[in-house]
Amino acid sequence: MNPTIFKNYRQWLLDQPMPKGKRSVLLAGLELFAQQGFNGTSTAQIADKAGVSQATIFKYFKTKQDLLLSILQPIIENFFPLYRDDFLDSLSQFKTLQELIHFIVRNRYQFLKDNADAVLIFTTEMLTNDTARELFTNIIKKSLPIIYSKLIMKIKKFNLRTELDFPIVFRTIISQTLAYFFQRQFISTLPVDEDHDLQLIEDQILRSVGA
Known about the structure:
Number of domains: 1
Organism: Paucilactobacillus hokkaidonensis
CATH topology: Tetracycline Repressor, domain 2
Number of helices: 10
Helix content: over 70%
Distance between the termini: 44 Å
DNA-binding region: 42-61
Protein name: TetR family transcriptional regulator
Domain HTH tetR-type: 19-79
Pfam families: TetR_N
Order of helices and strands: HHHHHHHHHH
């Protein structure tokens, strides 16, 4: 794997050395699993979307489950850690709580948007797929101590409400951003001013956690 920070997983996939047919199947699976869910997508639909035969799918992937894991594993084991570390390394530049919240909200929301297909697959498959849930649980267990230690070191320098511990502050920041992302994904027909909405989210978080 090339340890370069790409804009999104789809771009990373396009840049990996692999047969054209395999790449087409992975891209088709990524899109269709996100739109229709794993159980709602057939290998015939994937083949049609990818412009290949079903035989080509099974040439590279033993089962549909194997295809799903081939999409999820690089994200969990390589892509996510790279973005996590790049994100955490950027925290040191911010001098105020407002600047830090602005960065976290905008940076994480952009990451979710850039990787919407992968995020939606994770969201649905974690509820029903034991293997996907185990993969995600393992990376979260490894990542949370790293995230907590660096964020705590940064956030504790600012004036926060004394009754709030760090997990509450963390959940407040992340949950607001996630909720807005899913709102935009599932109610996308509504008129929206993202910049205005995100600013309101930042203001609400600052009021919730700032002293």
